[in-house]
């Protein structure tokens, strides 16, 4: 069974106010990379077809390399509308493709649980599977001039998400018919529905939000933080590195007391070759340890006169440059000081 994923990131971001919303970074990672990684690491996905704006090609390739994305087989130029972009990708897929998943890069918090759910629910007696979530707001419909026409039964209404999974032959046929008729749907499943196909829904994920406006970025950050407090999604876990640092210095006379880059008024300071900032030294060791590239003594030995009395904040800046070259970026630091 050959399964391919199409990730669409070719929109012009009218409501977001920028054509490059998928390049906005959350915790040092572009939105479209967040969206791709769960597919890249899911064993049942054979390849990924990424749809982007032509102008972004060079930038996208650089990010794919930086974040070690392996399964992107081809980068497709997007069309005028989202449906045109998906159609371009479908036309590029090999004929032996069995199932295709179509996902919006504007949903960067998709989990492998949702991906697995739509894939494993696919069967020969249905044409596609889509993830949905229940509505919590009261939904009304309006007449002209904003007059309320009535209240809809939200118990039978669902909010639809991506990725949406389809039998490849069924979805490409639906796209071809829609293209010939000039019909544009609001999602991929609507094309299958239009031509009498059968779509099954499965449970989506409340955190699988769509980034449409800049305000949505705040929701996204909150969703990521919420996951991290319990269990980050598989993609985030796979990219995390944890380091532990420890340092201690004795007090001596005639030295400044520097802790965390701050000079503390005191009659003694800490002994050391540099400014002996014990807190920053521990942080440096933790960062280097997380990257697996040695420790503070490896790069800033106390036998090197160039580091005599140097500010440890300078050493920290150098450390960040070192780990950056190893594709590591610190997200948070917890410290405890014993005195």
UniProtKB/TrEMBL annotation:
It catalyses: 4-CDP-2-C-methyl-D-erythritol 2-phosphate = 2-C-methyl-D-erythritol 2,4-cyclic diphosphate + CMP; 2-C-methyl-D-erythritol 4-phosphate + CTP + H(+) = 4-CDP-2-C-methyl-D-erythritol + diphosphate. Belongs to the IspD/TarI cytidylyltransferase family. IspD subfamily. Transmembrane segments: none annotated. GO terms for molecular function: 2-C-methyl-D-erythritol 2,4-cyclodiphosphate synthase activity; 2-C-methyl-D-erythritol 4-phosphate cytidylyltransferase activity; metal ion binding. The gene is ispD. GO terms for biological process: isopentenyl diphosphate biosynthetic process, methylerythritol 4-phosphate pathway; terpenoid biosynthetic process. InterPro entries: IspD, IspD/TarI, IspD/TarI_cytidylyltransf_bact, ISPD_synthase_CS, MECDP_synthase, MECDP_synthase_CS, MECDP_synthase_sf, Nucleotide-diphossugar_trans. Residues 240-339 form the 2-C-methyl-D-erythritol 2,4-cyclodiphosphate synthase domain. The keyword Lyase applies. This is 2-C-methyl-D-erythritol 4-phosphate cytidylyltransferase. The keyword Secreted does not apply. Its EC number is 2.7.7.60, 4.6.1.12. Its cofactor is a divalent metal cation. Keywords: Isoprene biosynthesis, Lyase, Metal-binding, Multifunctional enzyme, Nucleotidyltransferase, Transferase. Pathway: Isoprenoid biosynthesis; isopentenyl diphosphate biosynthesis via DXP pathway; isopentenyl diphosphate from 1-deoxy-D-xylulose 5-phosphate: step 4/6; Isoprenoid biosynthesis; isopentenyl diphosphate biosynthesis via DXP pathway; isopentenyl diphosphate from 1-deoxy-D-xylulose 5-phosphate: step 2/6. SUPFAM superfamilies: IpsF-like (SSF69765), Nucleotide-diphospho-sugar transferases (SSF53448).
């Amino acid at each position: 069974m050959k399964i391919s994923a199409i990730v669409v990131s070719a929109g012009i971001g009218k409501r977001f106010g920028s054509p490059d919303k998928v390049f906005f970074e959350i915790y040092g990672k572009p939105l479209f990379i967040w969206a791709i990684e769960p597919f890249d690491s899911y064993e049942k996905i054979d390849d990924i077809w990424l749809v982007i704006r032509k102008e972004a090609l060079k930038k996208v390739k650089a990010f794919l390399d930086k974040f070690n994305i392996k399964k992107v087989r081809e980068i497709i130029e997007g069309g005028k509308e989202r449906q045109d972009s998906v159609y371009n990708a479908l036309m590029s897929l090999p004929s032996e493709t069995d199932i295709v998943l179509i996902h919006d890069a504007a949903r960067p918090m998709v989990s492998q649980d949702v991906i697995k759910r739509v894939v494993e629910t696919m069967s020969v007696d249905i044409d596609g599977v889509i993830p949905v979530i229940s509505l919590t707001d009261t939904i009304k419909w309006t007449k002209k001039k904003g007059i309320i026409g009535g209240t809809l039964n939200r118990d039978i209404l669902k909010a639809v998400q991506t990725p949406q999974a389809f039998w490849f032959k069924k979805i490409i046929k639906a796209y071809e018919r829609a293209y010939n008729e000039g019909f544009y749907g609001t999602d991929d499943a609507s094309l299958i529905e239009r031509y009498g196909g059968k779509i099954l829904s499965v449970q989506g994920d409340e955190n699988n939000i769509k980034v449409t406006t800049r305000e949505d970025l705040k929701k996204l950050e909150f969703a990521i933080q919420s996951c991290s407090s319990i269990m980050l999604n598989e993609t985030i876990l796979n990219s995390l590195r944890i380091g532990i640092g420890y340092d201690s210095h004795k007090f001596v006379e005639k030295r400044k007391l520097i802790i965390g880059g701050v000079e503390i008024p005191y009659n003694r300071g800490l002994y050391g070759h540099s400014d002996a900032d014990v807190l920053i030294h521990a942080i440096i060791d933790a960062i280097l340890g997380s990257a697996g590239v040695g420790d503070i003594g490896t790069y800033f030995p106390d036998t090197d006169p160039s580091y005599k009395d140097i500010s440890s904040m300078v050493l920290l800046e150098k450390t960040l440059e070192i780990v950056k070259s190893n594709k590591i970026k610190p997200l948070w630091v917890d410290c405890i000081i014993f005195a």
